[in-house]
Amino acid sequence: MPTVKLDSLRELLEHDACVKVAGVDVDGILRGKVISRKKFLSIAEAGFGFCSVIFGWDMHDQTYLRELSVSNAANGYRDILAIPDLSTFRRIPWEKNVPFFLVSFVDPETKKPIAACPRGLLRTQLRKLQTQGYGAMAGAEYEFYTFRAPNSESSPAAFLQQNPPHQLPALTEGMFGYSLTRPVHNKDWYYDVYHSCAKFSCDVEGWHTESGPGVYEAALEFGEVGEMADRASLFKYVVKSVGVDHGVTPCFMAKPKQGLPGNSGHMHISLVDGDGKNLLARDTLDDGAEWRDVAGLSDLGRHFLAGLLVGLPDIMPILAPTINSYKRLVENFWAPVTVSWGFEHRAASIRIISPPTSKPGATRFEVRVPGADTNPHLVLAAILGCGWRGVEKKLAIPCPPLAMGQSVGGKADLGERLAKSLREATARFTSKDSIAREVFGDDFVDHFGGTRENEVRLFDEAVTDWEMKRYIETV
């Protein structure tokens, strides 16, 4: 996407009355507002004040039970600086082509990214590669459930008030992955999503039904890692916004329905040099490799894989950030539950895609642990950070690959079992010797870890429908 030059902004926005801007919070939610054209032109370079409370409250705007250092009552929920990223310019087709820009959040005094800013965190990790003349490419796949709203005027909040969550009507019924006929039932919505994504510069490469009632999957067109993270965040914005006009409510929860598959958010990653050459690929297959699964991987690629595998257990709150995330990561649902890897292995945490079944230029890792409920900027930052740590330390791959047909059912001989709950994952993430601290630094780990501890505490205090149904009569 071409970068907009500052001196051309006035002409570019000549016929616009206003501009919409948004940043990304730690939960991956876009937080923004509409400002006048005049105001935007005056702050496009220097930035503008933005209340830091978006990093001091949760996804329902409740301040954290234990206040965190970025934003709190003691510092008055001070303003931070929002800097528009002119390279993210696009127009919102479903809002009369209103101009749109993403922003990044920096400290007003140091002008450095604040610890909690997801876009800043990803750029920091990418810079480690760029100092060596390297870059990264990425792709994202999202699965999500769709529910039918009672009418197109209902907001999601009103919809949920009228329909108990466990009784939401699915857009389509039954299990029918890769169906050509199911999308015909809701073809106006189906194609509106596809075309709106293209107009909004977050193009979809593949778009189809998945197995499950009202479940769809989109593979976003691959691109530079920072741009990919932006487009992944904006994809959810498109789907939710377009759904309003069609009476469709999407759901990106990791596990919306008991007994059915969950929603994955697989991420693909590759490294390239300055000329765009794939650095994970080996020039010729290595017949002497310890395992045939890595025969097509370069030495750098093997170290990157090792870094991912070693780091996985310590970054789980990023890859599975909610209480619900761990309902998806259970045995026998095509979701990885161990530190595991394998060539073209869709049951492993990390799937290698390389020669001989693909072209060298397409060599990449598919990280299959994340769900659709993740923040793509944090996920890609974690993948880059842990993988590059493996390169810098020349780490060895810590476990053998999964054999084809081998399950990942949590057995010790199949690799370390990943965390089974957000509580367990957060404790490891925030431990003093966590790899996350080494990769991201204490400021981010303390902040993000604190937000996850808040989520755990809120759930500990919740009384669920399951408890009422199970105990109301019998105890």
List keywords for this structure.
ATP-binding; 475 residues; ATP binding; Creatine Kinase, Chain A, domain 2; 2 domains; Glutamine synthetase; nucleotide-binding; Gln_synth_cat_dom; 15 helices; single chain
3D architecture notes:
GO terms for molecular function: ATP binding; glutamine synthetase activity. Residues 118-475 form the GS catalytic domain. This is Glutamine synthetase. It comes from Drechmeria coniospora (Nematophagous fungus). The protein has 475 residues and is an alpha+beta fold. Helices cover 32% and strands 19% of the residues. The chain folds into two domains: 6-113, Ubiquitin-like (UB roll); 135-440, Glutamine synthetase/guanido kinase, catalytic domain (Creatine Kinase, Chain A, domain 2). The protein has helices at residues 9-12, 37-43, 118-130, 156-162, 182-185, 187-199, 225-246, 299-311, 316-319, 325-328, 376-393, 422-430, 435-440, 442-461, 465-471, and strands at 18-24, 30-36, 48-51, 79-92, 98-106, 135-148, 204-209, 215-220, 223-224, 248-251, 267-272, 341-343, 350-353, 364-367.
Summarize the structure.
By secondary structure, the chain is of the alpha+beta class. Helix content is 32%, strand content 19%.
**Percentage beta strand:** 15-25%
Terminus-to-terminus distance:
61 Å
CATH topology group of the largest domain: Creatine Kinase, Chain A, domain 2
Instruction: Name the shape in a single word.
Output: globular
Q: Give the total of beta strands.
A: 14
Given the structure, what is the number of helices?
A: 15
Which H/E pattern describes the elements? HEEHEEEHEHHHEEEHEEHHHEEEHHHHH
At the fourth level of CATH, the homologous superfamily of the largest domain is Glutamine synthetase/guanido kinase, catalytic domain
